[in-house]
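Reviewer has doubts. Consider these tokens.
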Amino acid sequence: MNTKKWTLMGLITVVCAVMPAGFASAAVKAELRVQGGQLESLDAGSTYRTDTETMKSSDKCGPTTEKKHTIDGATALGLVETAQRENKKLRPFRVSDTFGFGLIVCEIGQFGSFSATKAWLYKVNHKSPDVGGELFELKKNDSVLWYFANFFTGSNTGDELVLKAPNKVTPGQDFTVRVEAYDFAGNKTPAAGVAISGGTFGLTDATGASTGSITTSKGFARLKGTRGIDIPTQPKLVCERGGKRCPTN
């Protein structure tokens, strides 16, 4: 037996065993959307590259036990910390450990803070995880939604609405859009009764569909779906072919 070889292998095993959990972490690219009120989108959906983040604990929600928290690896909570450095609408971004069961989001932008009737909640790929945002490890191209739920008014306490529409249409052409609703567990159903802004669309029918057109001199329209207490859809840009600001692809 090659004693030198096995000694080296044993040393590597020991080093790997004592490495901090986040030591080998790598940056992850994920999409972030942040919905404040039902009409206020703080981030309509942007892609960021996130990794281990350190954030200060704020006393805005109550007394804190630690001044700083380091969150290893790419997480749903760390993604907001990454994004707020680029998107000023997400500032201030404050978290707190006042309740002792993990970090909570106290404030994002003008929306906060945590109380018996208001809270920042999150979903990943349309599903609400059963762990705090600092514990949810992101994978490449995950889609993260943070939303401010107001249980007193009902704002953002229903299903998450998702709008599907073509990227380009012929000027004046009627086309069909569809809206789906995702519940807390991520179950998908057609969304009836959704109002679509940005065009000549009526409420969606039982299949979640509505047919209409866009009329704009800019060459594009921004469609958005809303329904009662549900989380509104992410804005969808639809371009008329030939419009000067339409993308080529």
Summary: The chain has two domains: 29-150, 160-240. The longest strand covers residues 41-50. The radius of gyration is 22 Å. The CA atoms of residues 29 and 140 lie 5 Å apart.
